[in-house]
Design goal:
The protein is mostly helical. It has a domain at about 295-390. The chain is about 75% helix and about 0% strand. The chain has 18 helices and 2 strands. The chain has helices spanning about 10-70, 75-85, 90-105, 105-120, 125-135, 140-155, 160-175, 180-195, 200-210, 215-225, 235-245, 250-260, 270-290, 295-320, 325-335, 345-350, 350-375, 380-390; strands at about 5, 10. Strands 1-2 form a two-stranded antiparallel sheet. The longest helix has about 60 residues, at about 10-70. The protein is rod-shaped and about 160 Å long. The model is unreliable at about 1-5 (pLDDT under 50).
Length: about 400
């Protein structure tokens, strides 16, 4: 019997048909959802694959570009890094590309590139350093100094402490190349004051101080290294070289003697070894000649008499070989005439002021005769060296 519901009478066949329709629609809807989900997943996987592939290609080109840049082939690095940027834009890669342009000699293009990067990050240490180098290459000193200082004050990735020290040393080299020695010395002293207790770093700074004509400062740094146990030979040679230049022959002889008593590094050039040996011989001969104040009175007087005879003969030879010399040497001759004709060791031992008078006359004689008659030889050359720094000879 048919069932009546809300005014509608459905037969059993109609109810079955309706259920089948609902079930078919549900299956269709579920199938549609499943197909949509599958398509979404496939699209996502393809996108991720494409993205990963771009990342891989970008990383591959970047690695190739960096390798070419480090190997000294910036032209190859330019193409590789541009390809890397096409796949994966990156600020680091842009900086490397600009660096490659600079290394390849494309100064204007590199400057434009770095300037654009600088405008978005004016405090970046790396960008400022590169702009400083480019400005230095173009001879723009004011811009170079501005960007070097900005690099020192800027931010750095990694160990900024070490990077800033290297920037300061590079700035010092730049100033030295322009013969601006005083500001270079200032930068180097700051670097030395902030440097870690590392002999290699101190050696580098001491060598630059020498180039900046800050010989006294360089000697102090070299000696701080030579005070260590088993100091590097380079430090001993540097201490000997700078002490010799300052007329500190006792320090020079000690440092050079220690250096030459050890097997010299194969990296030390042969001409540097020869120079060191010559300086050591000169320093030792000067110390044998110099009337040091710590000598026994009789020995000191003996040395003064020896150098007095040498200087007197030098004056005689200079005056006789140069007809124009006597007027210029008249003052010296007059001072020599005021000395006793035959000085004795006892006179010098008993009259300390006489010792000072004679030694000063010797120094003055060697100095003036060198100006009038040219560079001396033998013991006169040694006495001339002493005359240039008489108080420094035996400084410790």
């Amino acid at each position: 019997m048919a069932t009546m519901h809300a005014g509608t009478i459905l037969t059993p066949e109609e109810r079955l048909a309706r259920r089948r329709l609902i079930l078919r629609d549900a299956v269709s809807l579920i199938s549609l959802f499943l197909i949509t989900a599958i398509l979404f997943i496939l699209t996502l996987l393809l996108f991720r694959s494409f993205t990963n592939h771009r990342q891989e290609l970008g990383a591959r080109w970047k690695t190739r570009g960096e390798a070419a840049l480090h190997a000294g082939h910036p032209e190859i690095a330019i193409d590789d890094l541009r390809s890397a940027l096409a796949y994966v834009p990156s600020r680091d890669t842009e900086i490397e590309l600009a660096t490659a342009l600079a290394d390849a000699g494309k100064t204007q293009e590199a400057t434009v590139y770095f300037t654009t990067l600088w405008e978005s990050a004016p405090g970046d240490g790396t960008i400022n350093l590169q702009l400083a180098r480019l400005a230095a290459k173009e001879g723009n000193e004011s811009q170079a100094l501005f960007h070097y200082q900005s690099a020192l004050d800027g931010t750095w990735q990694g160990n900024g402490y070490d990077r800033r020290r290297e920037v300061r040393l590079e700035l010092a080299r730049y100033l030295i190349s322009r013969r601006e020695f005083n500001p270079a010395r200032t930068q180097l002293l700051i670097a030395a004051g902030n440097a870690p207790d590392n002999p290699a770093i101190k050696l580098k700074i001491a060598g630059l101080l020498e180039q900046a004509t800050a010989i006294q400062d360089a000697l102090g740094l070299y000696r701080s290294i030579t005070a260590l146990r088993n100091p590097p030979v380079a430090a001993l040679l540097g201490a000997g070289r700078t002490a010799f230049a300052l007329g500190m022959y006792r320090v020079a002889a000690d440092s050079l003697g220690r250096a030459l008593a050890t097997p010299l590094d194969a990296q030390v050039p042969e001409n540097e070894k020869v120079t060191a040996r010559n300086m050591l011989d000169t320093a030792q001969n000067i110390l044998l000649l110099y009337p040091a104040f710590d000598l026994a009175p009789w020995n000191r007087a003996k040395r003064i008499l020896a150098i007095e005879r040498t200087a007197r003969q030098r004056l005689t030879d200079c005056a006789s070989s140069n007809p124009a010399a006597p007027p210029k040497l008249a003052g010296l001759v007059s001072r020599w005439d005021q000395l006793p004709t035959q000085l004795t060791r006892r006179q010098l031992e008993q009259q300390p002021p006489m010792e000072q008078t004679v030694t000063q006359l010797v120094w003055d004689t060697e100095t003036l005769t060198a100006q009038v008659c040219g560079p001396p030889a033998g013991n006169d050359a040694l006495l001339l060296r002493i005359a240039q720094h008489p108080a420094a000879v035996e400084q410790e």
